[in-house]
Design goal:
Elements (H helix, E strand, L loop, with lengths): L3 E5 L4 H12 L3 E6 L7 H10 L4 E4 L5 H10 L4 E4 L6 H6 L1 H22 L3 E7 L22 H19 L4 E7 L1 E3 L18 H10 L5 E4 L11 E2 L1 E3 H18 L3 E5 L5 E2 H12 L5 E4 L14 H7 L7 H16 L2
Parallel strand pairs: 1-2, 1-4, 2-3, 4-5, 5-6, 6-11, 7-10, 8-13
Antiparallel strand pairs: 9-12
Helix pairs in contact: 1-2, 1-8, 3-5, 5-6, 7-9, 7-11, 9-11
This protein binds UDP-4-deoxy-4-formamido-beta-L-arabinopyranose (WQD).
Length: 336
């Protein structure tokens, strides 16, 4: 069932890909973004991909009057909330900023929703809510033990949603816990575009491939994994975006609240990623073994069964597809 959906953070990496998938599923979509970590030309690119105008409200989730004006301008069926800060290391340096944007921003949004009579929301959460694995793969009932202010901020928001629903049963929500997003849109018009030196593996490898960075630092090769490097569950951003379309459809179709992992269930090491990227870009990429990064876990990956049961969600794109689309995006962007 198609609806009118507000996408906060819709110009960002996952938000922009979700915009495209929502439009192709027939939804009417409005983007809210403050462009703190996105470029304005993403909007033009979304217009090219979807062949139509983008409805945009530029502003901040910390601005309550702005939020009220957005809800006064449209009658939404649901909200998908991406607008948040997401760098684990930065959150350790700036816990107050993370609490303010991620927690206060979200509670402002929920208040604006309530005041506007909108009670369906899909929330961007993270596998980092689980912390150090007690058992693998991670199932949704694994205990939560956030290790950073970033992860803690997501747990606070998840808890707030549950409390809102206990207080008022009109709330219906989908909490989606992402594993490691990678790749870009097939059009090569949108993708991940970090301004600074990337923290995450895929965008870092991409910048080594384009020559913007000289060498990949492999953070530790003595982990308890098959090749000694860290293992993660990388999921194509377009698969992730499709998961949001399925989640919001579940809310619009029947108000069915859910908390789900979005991952593939497959773990790849840093070397697996590096070699897959080398295949995609057709050249050897330099790396060196560096010390372990503080706070890193050796290995984690999702049990994706529940998302499949609830939503019919299945990741369709493999590692080579993640690397190929990433390379198409970054090599084209560098030349434009
Ligand atoms: C992956 C592996 C590193 C960079 C991230 C986000 C977190 C959350 C989940 C959203 C690890 C190794 C990395 C590099 C390396 N996302 N690595 N050299 O740590 O799983 O967490 O995904 O909520 O926000 O931080 O992902 O991409 O940083 O690291 O060797 O230059 O690559 O040690 O084993 P991580 P990552």
């Amino acid at each position: 069932m198609a609806g009118r959906i507000l996408l906060t953070g819709g110009a960002g990496y996952i938000g922009s890909h979700t915009y495209v998938e929502l439009k192709s599923a027939g939804h009417d979509v409005v983007i809210l973004d403050n462009f703190s970590n996105a470029r304005h030309d993403v909007i033009d690119r979304l217009e090219v991909i979807t062949d139509g105008p983008v409805t945009l409200h530029e502003g901040d989730v910390l601005d309550k009057a702005f939020l009220a004006s957005v809800f006064a301008a449209h009658q939404f069926d649901a909200v998908i909330h991406f607008a948040a800060k997401k760098a684990v290391g930065e959150s350790v340096e700036k816990p107050l900023d993370y609490f303010e944007t991620n927690c206060t921003g979200f509670s402002n949004l929920l208040m604006a929703m309530r005041d506007g009579g909108v009670f369906r929301v899909v929330f961007s959460s993270t596998a980092t809510v689980y912390g150090e694995p007690e058992t693998l793969p991670f199932t949704e009932d694994h205990r939560l033990a956030p290790l950073s202010p970033y992860a803690q901020s997501k747990v606070v928001c998840e808890t707030l949603l549950a409390q809102c629903k206990t207080a008022d049963d009109r709330w219906a929500y989908g909490i989606l816990r992402y594993f490691n997003p990678a790749g870009a849109h097939d059009s090569a018009l949108i993708g991940e575009d970090p301004n600074d030196i990337p923290n995450n593996l895929m965008p870092y490898i991409a910048k080594v491939a384009t020559g913007e960075l000289p060498t990949l630092n492999v953070f530790g090769d003595d982990y308890d994994t098959p090749d000694g490097t860290g293992v993660r569950d990388y999921i194509h951003v377009v698969d992730l975006a499709r998961g949001h379309v399925q989640s919001v459809a579940k809310l619009i179709g029947g108000n069915e609240t859910h908390t789900l992992n979005l991952g593939t269930g497959i773990g790849y090491s840093v070397f697996d990623m590096l070699h897959a990227y080398e295949r995609a870009c057709g050249k050897k990429l330099p790396y060196r073994i560096a010390p372990r990064r503080a706070g890193d876990i050796d290995c984690f990956y999702a049990d994706p069964t529940l998302a499949n049961d609830w939503l019919g969600f299945e990741a369709r794109r493999d590692l080579d597809d993640m690397c190929r689309t990433s390379w198409n995006w970054v090599s084209r962007r560098k030349n434009t």
